[in-house]
Specification:
281 residues; Rossmann fold; 5-stranded parallel β-sheet; SGNH_hydro_sf
């Protein structure tokens, strides 16, 4: 009887150990399967993301002749994992302009590494930008897109002739292209002014004449061009809103309303298709 009990006890122990071992093996196998499945899902996602990235790059490359600036920057960011924008030629950009624009562009691009810089000099003009070697400073930032804020007001203030203003601008563009061969360069006009429109230099020319001169240059050279000055006036005319309501008392500086409008027009211009083939290769 005792032998039988011992036998059954041993059988029970063996069965219990077997169950434990089998269960442990099953758990390990299940755990390993789950880990492998997780790895497989990660690999599948990486492959899917890579294919999507390649698809986007191909779409961008196939439409370089009619791509918005935002999509162009997406294209650059996809290839370089970052994007850099520089404002050049105008006065130092203030936070109330740069910060909203950077936030807007960041949301559109979904790029963590987006830098917006400003390269300026005191009282800029095309002549001073050229003689102070400002293009070299610009090139040191290695921007992917350059917004060249043409200093028409500065040219008017220091009495540069329209002919010389054109020559200096063309030279600056040539220098930028030489030092930044893969940068997309876009000329940008300033917001309008009530005060400056009535100011004439010794040549009896106001800043509007330099704007018209710029339009002729753009047409001749087929430069990329955001005419925010005229768009600003057109927007106000459509709303029957006086220009003075968007400026500070000096008739030059944008107030909060004017700054918001200028940013809105700038953002709109960034979504319009342009020829981006002069940029990154």
């Amino acid at each position: 009887m005792e032998k039988r009990n011992i036998f059954f006890l041993l059988v029970g122990v063996v069965v219990t150990v077997g169950v434990i071992i089998t269960g442990s093996h099953y758990a390990e196998t299940k755990k390993e399967a789950m880990i492998n499945q997780g790895k497989t899902e990660i690999v599948k996602k990486e492959v899917s993301d890579k294919k999507q990235e390649e698809k986007e790059i191909n779409e961008f490359e196939n439409n370089r002749g009619s791509l918005s600036t935002v999509d162009y920057l997406k294209f650059v960011a996809t290839k370089k994992q970052k994007a850099t924008v520089s404002f050049f030629g105008g006065k130092e950009q203030q936070p109330e302009f740069i910060n909203p624009l950077q936030n807007w562009m960041g949301e559109k691009l979904k790029v963590a590494d987006l830098a917006i810089q400003s390269v300026s000099i005191p009282n800029p003009s095309t002549y001073q930008l050229m003689t102070q070697n400002s293009v070299a400073t610009l090139a040191s930032n290695a921007p992917d897109v350059v917004f060249f804020q043409v200093p028409v007001v500065g040219d008017q203030e220091i009495d540069i002739s329209l002919t010389n203003s054109k020559q200096y601008l063309l030279q600056l563009m040539e220098d930028i292209r030489a030092q930044l061969p893969e940068a997309l360069v876009i000329l940008v006009t300033p917001p309008p002014s009530t005060a400056l429109k009535e100011v004439y230099n010794s040549r009896s020319i106001n800043y509007v004449s330099y704007l018209e001169n710029l339009k002729e240059i753009e047409a001749e050279q087929s430069f990329l061009y955001f005419d925010l000055h005229d768009q600003y006036l057109a927007d106000l005319e459509e709303k029957a809103q006086p220009l003075e309501s968007t400026l500070e008392a000096d008739g030059i500086t944008l107030n909060s309303v004017g700054n918001a409008l200028y940013i809105e027009l700038f953002e709109k211009a960034l979504t319009q298709p342009i020829d981006t083939t002069s940029g990154i290769k």
